[in-house]
Amino acid sequence: MQVFRAALKAFFRHPIYLLIYVVLLSCMGVFMGMSMNDAPSDEYLEWPRVAVVDRDGQELSQGLRAFVLDQGEAVEVHDSERALQDAVMQELASYILIIPKGFSADFARAAATGAKMPEVQVIISSQSMDVTMMDSLVDEYLGVARTYTVALADASQSEVVARTNTAMAHTANVSVVQTTDAPPLSNAFLVYLQFEGYTILLSIAVCSAVVISRFGREEMHRRVAASPVPQLSVNLQIAAACLVIMLACWAFVCVLGLVAFGGRIAGVAAPVVAAALAALLCYSLFGLAFGFLVGQMTDNELVMNAVSNITGLVISFLGGVWISLDLVGEPIVTIAKFTPVYYYNGAIKAALDPAGGGFTSEALANMGIVCLFALVVFCIGLAISGIRAGRMGVWNGSSTKQLSHPAA
Amino acid sequence: MWNTFKYTTLSIVRERSIVVWVLLFPLILATLFNAMFKGIDENAHDLDPIPVAIVNKSEAGADKAFQTMMDMLSEGDEALLASVEAKTSEEAQALLRDNKTIGTITLDENGWPSLELSAVSGETGVSMEQVKRTVLADVVDDFCRTRTAVEDIMENDPQAIRDPEIVRSFVRLDDYTSELRITHSQTREYVRYFYALLGFAALMAANVGLTAVGAIQPNISPLGARRAISGTGRARTLAGSIAASWLVSFLALVVAFVYIRFVLGVEFGGREAACILGIAVSALMATAFGALVGALPHVPASAKGGILSGITCLLSLFAGLYGTPALRLADQVARNAPWATAVNPVKQVSNLFYSLYVYTDLEPFFQTLGVLALTTAVFALVAALMMRRQSYASL
Description:
A: mainly alpha, abc type-2 transporter like fold, B: alpha/beta, D-Maltodextrin-Binding Protein, domain 2, 16 helices, 5 strands
């Protein structure tokens, strides 16, 4: 157990890694989870933050203004170019409606004569779907107002607006149904676990790579090779130490998640939560295998950091952890299927499926694939380790030859 | 000092980790962003038909208007809905449970629709499932609103309904909005990820300053110990090393910028010269930050790289680097705690480019540049104080 203890000692000599990668980065997942709300509105797109600049001030424009502000989160924006640019830059409002002066009068005139209808102007901060939906609501409101203006030729504008408002207020009864008896699952907890995929890969890979690389250094390798402990035993003890580190990282992330989101998953069946955490454990195994691979390739800690970070970011993006894959093109989805994060994501979604999660066949299949990824990466690491050991052996052999030559 | 500058530059560019962090990293991630976000932009308005079940409990003839609308929306190559008839609510529920539909529209005896949606399994950020649910709810709402207006006119002004123009206007889909451009470039959300990436890359370039400062500290590296007893003064050695760090960081960031701008075609508001100025200041800030981390006492040199990348990852979260939810979180933080944005160099660098993209004048750009210059001065001052106060092994 000497090597095992030495390996752990080597790791704990770098508490900064523990603090930054395990503690600090795990908190990123908590921030992300906390920023999600579990309200039923998550079923739909979040309506944009909206602002209305009413330069007209007539009944129709006021009616439209009230309707638009009622649909999204209302924000006040001043009517100046800089203020409007600030609103876009600072994301204060993603949909700004500008009703030009004289719009109401032009609208009534065009509706009555059949001329081209006047337009309101919009400033958008992104071409997103929520903005498009907001745009279609404005079109709907003005379409109904136009119909009333034509139909009620003698009516005042206030009557047109009042009846338009009544019609627009009539929406369908929409409800979200639970298809199972289980309580609804927390979106925040799912997002936390998705984000932790990145941080746990990074923390386990860097921490285990630090330990493995310590024993992979040439001088250390030679000293260990000269000791009476068999190489297999040395390797197994190093592996055991890395496994302990991995389990510690995984346990920390689990406890942090349960403490931070425990209230939100209260009432969720224990096997459902256990299955999600088991998926994280499988992904942690991949992190360990990746750390082993990186540790075989380099003993430069900056390179270890860089390689783990880049790989973590790339596969997290590709695996659909941060961007929903149904929004990107088919080629990206195909590439995503070659990353373990894709299956990790699939495993936690299946485990936390509101329609019956837990250790389902889908969740288990995804976990199995993640474990296979870990095995493949570990085998690559072993191959590199073998090549390195071989090279050292050749070098040692030639050195011995050189040294023994003068004596001969 | 020239020799210090020259050889520090050479030693930095020969360092593998620097090449990976500062040069390869932004190029790899920018290529990935390009593949993913441009796909989103192109697919933003492509919707597959939305699967929905219809349960018709209406009396004879009461569903005519609704069926007409459904026929219009379900026909053709660009059909919005893919509806299936369900005889009972239980049958519709089963379809919902098996994920064959995402919603059930039930018509009551008078032909008024209500909508039931399945609970969505969580997604990070916007998902196509959310889009479909929203569109479906809007379709049903739109029907209710139009029908209310029609019935209102029929009841209160029956003669008006005889006018074919009014009947036509119920199904007429006019576009009443036009986009007004007040910003310097047409707004595209995905550009913000590239700006956040440049912010991340800038702070990662602090690794250069970290390595260079480590190489002149006697208690950090044997090279530092040798240099400490050389004939060149400490201040000159430091100045040469920092100048070399800045140059390498600047050039690496310029390479990333040129790749993003000219190879990937990401817009920077057509102000490339201002971008280069911004990169120069960002590189200076990164160098000062690297020097600050490099000067931290009682921390092993190898662990300093970990500290730097850990801090950078955390700060990048609040600059919106990690996808849509992170961007929303960054916006929330910026709105509710502007001071958090001011003290986050990754966000400041990102804002530097975004202000060029959004504003028609350069004042906000120079304001952000000023904040970055101030941040640089603070980092440099603290680093200098820490380096000045360090004592090494002596006789």
